[in-house]
From TrEMBL:
Belongs to the flavin monoamine oxidase family. FAD binds at residues 16, 35-36, 235. Residues 16-446 form the Amine oxidase domain. The keyword Metal-binding does not apply. This is FAD-dependent oxidoreductase. One of its GO terms (molecular function) is oxidoreductase activity. PANTHER family: AMINE OXIDASE, AMINE OXIDASE [FLAVIN-CONTAINING] B. Substrate binds at residue 340. It holds the Pfam family Amino_oxidase. Its cofactor is FAD. It comes from the Bacteria. Keywords: Oxidoreductase.
């Protein structure tokens, strides 16, 4: 057993933990990072699958994600734009395929009018929400006790408009069924991206990718830590008290003044806290759960859809694959499509055999792009639900009423224990940008408390 003494022990080497660790180290603190997996990056993972470089986890960068963009610049990483020339495809409830340009799907004029009106109304509501404190809005309680789906049903009886609007924060973002989270949670999702319109605008929200893969962010940050990073060290026991913490990894124990839990809050229950956490956090952590989406990668000899004048962008709340994009790598002659199968659809296809699941997913892609889509040379499903140290994708959100009830407590330190993760970000919530913001915030919180010479208040 290696025994270390440090100022701060950081548990988790994702974008949050590594941002916090490198920021603290730069400011002169001694740190140790304990990571459960045999790699850094957590939900960022760029890998070679049968000769194809795939972004198994997060990949896109949008123009509002200033913390991520600053980090990319600082690390010398270059970006390229997602391919978007040509027409997009929409498939309606009857399975009818239509090509279109712009953001609004090619629906009947009345449905289009309702969709535009809803987006406008949601933009106005979102503009009133502080993404760092949505629970402070005067309507927070009211908006948190109604599901996103139930609220939309109160606004319109146009089923197609409802399904499309529900998808933007449901299947496409929180990756839970629209009845399983609140209107307030949906508004937070949009506020964290700047507006509801931004979520509708795929060219904004899925703007750029990093050449060589987004996992280079955690990899390059980790290089700055040298010997202060320890892999394959799941922390399952954390002693804490007035004199600091002791974090127990598999073969490394770190005694420190403070700990940062830089992992999804849905995984805190894996850790035995000694003494147990106070009742509010113990309760609160049970009201958060991970969404679930399968990210499907299909690589072809060439991007055949481009020959047909298609951008590769495709949507349908009625399809197994509810959204798909051209995900061809920078400078690659082969063409890659990426598609997403969300929430209950994802559960359902994992009840099928591997072959049946692959066939169903490729048939759904073929509905958008034609039969050629059924024959990729490389096919891969990112299954984060099966990952012990993540257990879902993309991130965690509260159940009905949870955000208003507990949101303000989520980031509050408990004695020497601090909490940070993209799942508790305001701007950049659920995204790498939010992870970096939370890493910076927790480092600043610790520096401030150290400057005051006091430990954080007990909850
Ligand atoms: P993260 O979960 O990455 O890191 C936590 C770390 O803690 C992990 O390395 C884990 O192994 C470790 N850990 C857990 N328990 C531990 C324990 N007990 N002891 C020690 N270590 C422990 N974002 C974006 O900006 N653009 C995008 O396009 C996408 N797309 C996307 C697709 C998919 C499929 C996924 C899964 C996610 C995305 N995201 C995304 C989201 C983005 O990847 C995510 O928000 C951040 O990478 C999360 O970073 P964190 O460091 O906060 O958590």
């Amino acid at each position: 057993m290696t025994e270390l003494v440090r100022d701060v022990v950081i548990i988790g080497a994702g974008a949050t933990g590594l941002t916090a660790a490198t920021t603290l180290k730069k400011a002169g603190a001694s740190v140790a990072v304990l990571e459960a997996r045999d790699r850094v990056g957590g939900r960022l993972w760029t890998d070679d699958i049968e000769g194809a470089m795939l972004e198994i986890g997060g990949q896109w960068v949008s123009p509002d994600q200033s913390a991520l963009i600053e980090t990319l610049d600082e690390l010398g990483l270059e970006t390229f734009s997602r391919y978007r020339e040509g027409e997009s495809v929409y498939v309606d409830a009857a399975g009818q395929r239509r090509r279109f340009t712009g953001d609004i799907f090619p629906v009947a004029p009345e449905t289009e009018r309702i969709m535009n009106e809803l987006i406008e109304r949601l933009d106005a509501m979102v503009a009133e929400i502080d993404p760092d404190a949505p629970w402070e809005h005067p309507n927070a309680r009211e908006w948190d006790k109604i599901s996103w789906e139930a609220w939309l049903e109160q606004q319109t009886d146009d089923a197609e408009a409802l399904a499309n609007i529900a998808m933007f924060t449901g299947a496409a973002m929180l990756t839970k069924p629209a009845h399983a989270f609140s209107l307030l949670q949906s508004l937070l999702m949009a506020a964290s991206a700047g507006s509801f319109t931004h979520l509708v605008d795929a060219d904004f929200i899925l703007d750029k990718r990093v050449i060589g893969g987004l996992q280079q962010v955690p990899i390059r940050l980790a290089e700055r830590l040298g010997d202060d990073l320890f892999l394959e060290q799941p922390v399952l026991r954390l002693e804490h008290g007035d004199d600091g913490v002791v974090a127990h990894g598999r073969s490394v124990t770190v005694r420190a003044k403070r700990a940062i839990l830089a992992l999804a809050p849905t995984l805190y229950h894996r850790i035995s806290f000694e003494p147990a956490l106070p009742r509010i956090p113990q309760q609160m952590h049970q009201h958060l759960s991970m969404g679930f989406v399968i990210k499907v990668h299909a690589v072809y000899e060439r991007p055949f859809w481009r020959d047909a004048g298609l951008s590769g962008t495709a949507f349908s709340p009625f399809q197994l694959v509810h959204e798909a994009y051209d995900n061809t790598n920078h400078g690659d002659e082969r063409g890659t499509l990426v598609g997403f199968v969300s929430d209950q659809n994802a559960d359902d296809v994992f009840r099928l055999s591997d072959e049946e699941r692959r066939t169903s997913i490729l048939e759904s892609l073929a509905t958008y792009y034609g039969d050629e889509a059924k024959h990729p040379v490389v096919y891969y499903e990112s299954d984060w639900g099966a990952e012990e140290w993540t257990r879902g994708a993309y991130a965690a959100s509260f159940d009905l009423g949870g955000l208003q009830r507990y949101g303000a407590d989520l980031r509050r330190p408990i004695g020497p224990i601090h909490f940070a993760c993209s799942d508790m970000a305001g701007a950049g919530y659920q995204h790498v940008d939010g992870a970096i913001r939370m890493g910076r915030l927790v480092a600043a919180q610790i520096a401030e408390q150290d400057a005051k010479g006091a430990q954080g208040p007990r909850a």
